[in-house]
Give the backbone structure.
Amino acid sequence: MVTQGGISRRGVTAGLLAAGLIGGGALPVRAQRAKYRLRYGTAFPADHPGAVRIREAAEAIATATNGEVNLQVYPNSQLGGEADMFSQVRSGALDFMSTSGVNQTVLPVGGINAVAFAFDDYAKVWAAMDGDLGAYVRAQFAKIGLHVFDKMLDNGYRNITTAAKPIAGPDDLKGLKIRVPGNQLWVTMFDALGAAPTPINFGELYAALQTHIVDGQENPLALISSAKLYEVQKHIALTGHIWDGHHVFTNARRWAAMPEAIRASITKGLTEAALKEREDILRLNEELIASITKAGVTFSKPDKQPFREVLKKAGFYADWKGRFGAEPWALLEKYAGPL
């Protein structure tokens, strides 16, 4: 079992559930007195660092505001799918949520961090997303009525899993029916690589793999583990083809209506949570390779350059430069290098 800071993730989650602090349990006395009762929705499973650390932030925020703020965390898509939650935040029906891919349907440049094979390592990721590229993206979201917090959560580098054969290079993807999130960046990437990308909701993914509706899928190791996808997949290729991060959103108008001191406490809590969650994912990546290997899964680490060459030849990078625009693409290449 994976632990964080010496504390079992499963134990932390069980304790929060028992106390009614995750999801719709009975509110503690302090929460019942709160002036600001806020809800935070996420697709992350309850024991994923992206949910656990936000729950810790909620407790810190309650303490910092003397109980004025009660932030309830709803993991595992309890409040609906990511697209539904994103729409709810835009309308003001939901207070906070985190997501990556679904926002691209509203603001394409919101997914520029997921350009295939852009970031070689985390040093480049955080330089970009905590720097000028992230600031540019957040400014675009502000134009459509969303406040985005400065620090993103780390969903991790995405890797390809398969049941029948390992992926050693781009040729192995030809004809592979692979599940992808329902957005164009993912679909066009795997199309260019010769695969057959198939959008399926994450909640339906395990069954789709088990019944061979799709032959493979791609996700960060933390989600492969928490969703137990390794039970129905026997090979994991550490392609790291996309770095995937979650922006944390709130409705800009509702956010501006809160007192400055309350906003400052929430911002501080969510910022600290994001930085801790990033560290958690780094530790988990190392631990999960060992634990998933013990479950009978074979790992490989393909050379990334042949994938990049196929994408470049297919016009993938030129196409997305045109879609995103010259200014954000220049900011991406400032950190990632020429694509």
Q: What stands out?
A: The CA atoms of residues 181 and 202 lie 8 Å apart. The longest strand covers residues 235-251.
